[in-house]
Design a protein that fits this description.
single chain, mainly alpha, elongated
């Protein structure tokens, strides 16, 4: 365990500056999206009322309706795109975290493979690094949404109980099929927790396949990732109308893909992976 934590510490120190910069950009984007949504909603509401652009129209009783039905929707749409981009960058790092060790001048992978420990510890440390980055982005977004709502409440003098409750004001009112961060516990677990884990292990397996076979590695690795995605889409589409069955199918898919990916990755690390 100590070896894994040591490797994780080494991995995180290599990326923490960029990661915290990403978190800072996410915060700035949230604040910018909040101010833009307020201005945009003020403009739309003023046009509807036939008045000059002013925030006073949103401070009326009728303005509360505009805030809940339109402003929050605009804010959620913009911030979801920013979160999606941030998570995508973290997933792309699932590739970088391996290839950087191979193509760096110091050939870090050589040092890692020769360490007196289980090779799979390298995999676990990289897995913890990437997943903790993604979970960190998702977690801080809840805090940033709270900050967004506090800003809206302060600027527009919103006097509604529970307005700053992120779950009730933002997440509960979103379209279920366009969500990235889900309000329902089972959806949150399946997509934002287990879905993230599966995505990372599949990418890791694809990378290790590519690194283990010189001539056809890229076909094997890319094919594995592509096949995993297509299979998930097909299963979801086939059982989309049957929620209970879909949940069971997705759980089975997650378990099978996770076990297969881990077994393949472990075998490749121990027997085939090299410099």
């Amino acid at each position: 365990m100590n070896n894994i934590l040591t490797l994780y510490d080494m991995e995180f120190k290599r990326i923490y500056k960029i990661y915290f910069t990403l978190i800072g950009i996410l915060l700035a984007s949230n604040i910018g999206a909040t101010l833009f949504s307020i201005y945009n909603m003020s403009s739309r509401a003023s046009d509807t009322e036939g008045n000059p652009i002013t925030m006073n129209v949103l401070k009326s009783e009728k303005g509360i309706k505009y805030i809940y039905e339109y402003l929050i929707g605009d804010l959620a749409s913009i911030t979801k795109m920013v979160v999606a981009f941030s998570v995508l960058l973290c997933l792309l790092y699932s590739l970088v975290i391996w290839y950087r060790d191979y193509f760096s001048k110091s050939k870090t992978i050589a040092t890692l493979l020769m360490l007196p420990q289980k090779r799979f510890n390298i995999y676990i440390s990289k897995f913890i690094t990437v997943t903790s980055m993604i979970f960190g982005v998702i977690s801080v977004q809840f805090l940033f949404w709270f900050i967004d709502l506090v800003i809206i409440k302060a600027i527009l003098n919103v006097n509604v109980d529970g307005f700053t409750n992120v779950f009730e004001t933002i997440l509960a009112n979103q379209n279920r099929f366009s969500n990235l961060i889900f309000n329902q516990p089972i959806d949150f677990l399946m997509i934002d927790v287990f879905g993230v884990i599966i995505a990372v292990v599949v990418i890791f397996t694809g990378v290790l396949m590519e690194r283990s076979h010189k001539k056809i590695g890229i076909i094997l690795g890319g094919g594995y990732i592509f096949a995993s995605i297509i299979l998930y889409i097909c299963l979801t589409a086939q059982y989309a109308q049957y929620v209970d069955i879909l949940l069971k199918v997705q759980i089975a898919y997650y378990i099978v893909i996770f076990v297969i990916s881990i077994l393949i990755s472990r075998a490749l690390l121990n027997k085939r992976i090299g410099l």
